[in-house]
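Data card: per-record layout.
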Amino acid sequence: MINFAQKILYQFKEYFILLFLVLICLLLISNSENSKAKKLKAFAIANFAVVEKLSSSFISLFVKDESIDELKKQNAILMLELEKVRKAEKENEELREMLSIKDTSSYNLIPTNIVSKLTNKFQGNFVIDKGSNDGIIKGMPVINTKGLAGIVMDVTENFSVVKTLYNTSLNIAVNIKRTNVNGILNFNGRNLIVKNIPTTYDVKEGDEVVTSDFSTAFPPSIPIGVIEKKELNMLGLLHTLYVKPFSDVNTSHFLFVIKVVPSKQINNLEMNLIKKP
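The structure for this 277-residue chain is written out next.
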């Protein structure tokens, strides 16, 4: 080991001597009170600081900055909190509208929460948190704050299944309010439509569509939507009316069940139009 150290010392003795002399010079310069030595010392310190700053910036590109990760985490938390606030604001507005409707409605309304939405392209069904224990029975109409939402199709003690407007098996007797034209509204998988309206009838885009007096499943004059478009059939004798609902039922959080007992005899005939898939 000693021989190895001696060999290294002998082989690089010129470098060791140079390093030793440089250290002595730097020591002397740092302790010197000479004006030139002070300027040289200041210049060296300034350049060292610049090199240190550049090297730190370069190294930071490859070193993980924990503060950045913490900021990203805080941003994610704030984003989630903001979404909660937005959701709460929307639900608050919907609840205020529901309170207004309940206070002014002549019907006995049962407020409910939607606990599940079982929807696909052709079948829209909601599960609500009220059932037979709350006085709900099969066939009762369901509304939201803007208008008709659907009908109760199945009931248990504490929950009910609501078949919404966006269900191909639901057919609703409707009336075009301005001209008293009647028809049947259903969902074709894409749009709410009223088919087979004669072209001679006075029907315009923008006309309001409500539930019909002829319906026993739904009370009359419940708002549904407006006519958005008219389309002629191939023979040019009949119109298909496209109805834009007043509200998107699928975004609702709360619903009202109208506590109306349907006529058992007449309603059995009409319920044949409301077939389960």
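Known properties of this structure: The radius of gyration is 39 Å. The mean pLDDT is 77.

See the next section for split statistics.
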